[in-house]
Write a structure and sequence with these properties.
Helices cover about 45% and strands about 20% of the residues. The chain has about 575 residues and is an alpha/beta fold. Among the domains are: about 170 residues, no CATH class; about 140 residues, 3-Layer(aba) Sandwich (Rossmann fold). Helix 3 packs antiparallel against helix 4 and helix 8 packs antiparallel against helix 9. The longest helix is centred in the first third of the chain and has 18 residues. The radius of gyration is 29 Å and the shape is globular.
Length: about 575
């Protein structure tokens, strides 16, 4: 009875905001009954309010041991885990609360918040919808759903998401639930909807409103997108001015409008070589671009990804308009040359650039031409060129950025176009570099990036221990030469690991291999390897892990072991 009275007094002080007095009473109560679940729970909440998350977690973990079916205890422990950055543990607690009390809307709301923070936005949105279905007048869930749909709609530009977010935001503002964050989301949604309508006048009004609330990064993207609308609507002057505001043109460079020439690259027809005369070569970086004598630019067969991600192309619009930034000064390259291009990235070299040599070797007029290549040749580039018998004297190293007027330039199609490898590329790589010996015994390999500077797996020891029970061994591809990498993948029936260029070697794995690619956060939306796996006849799945940093592309990551095992199960491993 004494402990019950102490708890009642402590709870009264707690509700009155007298936290220090409540602490003393809760401690006295626990001294008499160390396993009092109500005291453990409320004392944990008090420490959470004081932002002493370690103490709060210790108390609530103990409370959940004493009262394992208490959904409120699980919810509060999840909140503490979330506040301390332990998102996987928070997710588990919120799911436990929902299992104990289906329809527990606060648990659904908080689970949605954690899932969105972990990059699993579709699952998070589903939680918010469930909470609203259970309690239609739940303003917090409507708010979180509106913000989540705003973020998703801005990223995907899917009209249903944008329109639903617009309706939810309007409802919140009309009901008095608006604030600075909701106002900003509203202006963002109106701006993105105007982008879809491609009406320059309406877009200018929405852009002006959004410009007032956007942060620097958002404003840069919005200016670029407004420039795209202006270019598409036939006003390159406005487009150029906005583009220059978004990303200033470097000194000594100029921005100019060009016309896109639609090429005929197709996986259903043979790759080809075009000879350009008096053309402009823009070298270096991921893309090596060629502007024809008449000013036209072809991207099909020339780039393997969005050309706007390179250093020269600012905008490309469906109507055919191109905004190009390039150095003013030009140099000249006399005589006929073959454009090989390249960069020290294993995927782009093996899949995009190196296969150009297959086409050049088949034409006697091209087979002996000097070849323009990237100046910063990596070891694997030299190794592959030597394996193909290319004399280093034929190589003309060229660095970018630059503008080179070429009198005659043979430009072969890349081995892949906008991430889609050509079947001839896969066949040639296997035939040229694959093992000619007996088939290797089937293996399962984990491709580690422990030697890399980015996209490493923080909990790799735990991951590889779990994978070892499924028959996986560890391969550190970066420590192997070309032959070693090819040999490691040649017998692989299963390949798993964090996203990286080493996955290029699935080309050499036997058809039907199972491939699990792990990506940090929202970078899971991107990538080159799903189409490569499909072209090779493999089964590909992707797991989005928790990013350990803010960079959506290069952050280290923490892999949820249970989800990893579920993905392996789905692949039959």
């Amino acid at each position: 009875m004494r402990s019950a009275r102490l708890f009642a007094q402590g709870l009264a002080e707690h509700k009155a905001g007298k936290l220090r007095s409540a602490q003393r009473l809760y401690r006295r109560c626990l001294a008499q009954d160390a396993d009092h679940p109500d005291v453990l729970g409320h004392f944990g909440i008090l420490h959470y309010q004081l932002q002493d998350y370690a103490a709060a977690i210790a108390l609530l973990e103990r409370g959940l041991t004493v009262a394992p079916g208490d959904p409120g205890m699980a919810l509060n422990l999840g909140n503490c885990y979330q506040a301390s950055g332990r998102l996987a543990d928070a997710e588990a607690c919120f799911r436990r609360a929902l299992a104990a009390a289906p329809g527990f809307v606060e648990a659904d709301l908080n689970l949605g918040n954690v899932l969105c923070a972990r990059g699993r936005h579709d699952e998070g949105v589903a939680c918010y919808r469930r909470a609203i279905a259970a309690r239609p007048d739940y303003p917090q869930a409507r708010r979180r759903l509106a913000l989540a749909l705003t973020a998703e709609g801005a990223a995907s530009l899917e009209p249903p998401l944008l329109l639903e977010a617009e309706e939810l935001l309007a409802g919140l503002m009309l009901s008095g639930g608006g604030d600075g964050e909701i106002d900003k989301a509203w202006k963002r949604i109106r701006w993105h909807l105007s982008r879809l309508r491609r009406d320059a006048s309406a877009a200018r009004l929405a852009f002006a409103a959004f410009e007032a609330v956007a942060d620097e990064a958002e404003l840069r993207l919005a200016r670029n997108e407004m420039a795209r609308i202006e270019l598409e609507c036939g006003d390159p002057r406005r487009a150029t001015a906005l583009c220059a505001l978004a990303v200033p043109v470097p000194p000594g460079w100029r921005m100019e409008a060009a016309a896109r020439v639609v090429g005929g690259w197709s996986a259903q027809r043979p790759l080809d070589v075009a000879v350009e005369r008096d053309c402009l070569l823009l070298p270096g970086g991921r893309d090596w671009l060629v502007q024809a004598r008449d000013g036209g630019m072809r991207f099909d067969g020339i780039v393997n990804a969005n050309p706007e991600a390179g250093q020269y192309v600012r905008l490309v619009v469906p109507s055919g308009g191109v905004l190009l930034a390039r150095p003013e000064a030009e140099t000249t390259l006399d005589g006929p040359h073959l454009l090989l291009g390249g960069l020290p990235n294993y995927y782009h070299w093996m899949i995009d650039y190196l296969p150009r040599l297959r086409l050049a070797a088949a034409d006697p007029a091209l087979a002996a031409l000097p070849m323009v290549v990237n100046a910063d040749l990596a070891g694997f580039q030299r190794e592959t060129l030597a394996a193909l018998g290319v004399d280093s004297a034929r190589l003309l190293p060229m660095a970018g950025p630059g503008a080179v007027r070429c009198r005659e330039l043979a430009v072969a199609d890349l081995g892949a176009n906008f991430q889609q490898p050509h079947p001839d590329t896969i066949a040639w790589l296997r035939r040229t570099f694959g093992s000619a010996g007996p088939a290797a015994a089937p293996t399962r390999i984990w491709v580690s990036r422990r030697d890399a500077a980015l996209r490493r797996v923080v909990n790799e020891d735990a991951v590889t221990a779990a994978l070892a029970r499924r028959g996986f061994t560890v391969v550190v591809a970066g420590t192997l030469g070309l032959a070693g990498q090819i040999a490691a993948f040649a017998g692989a029936e299963a390949v798993a690991g964090p996203h990286g260029a080493a996955f290029t070697n699935i080309v050499f794995s036997p058809p039907g291999a199972r491939v699990l690619e792990i990506m940090p956060g929202r970078y899971g939306q991107l990538g080159f390897f799903p189409p490569l796996a499909e072209a090779c006849g493999h089964h590909h799945r992707r797991l989005v892990a928790d990013a350990a940093g803010s960079d959506p592309q290069n952050a280290d990551m923490t892999v949820d072991i249970a989800r990893l095992m579920a993905e392996l199960d789905a692949l039959g491993l």
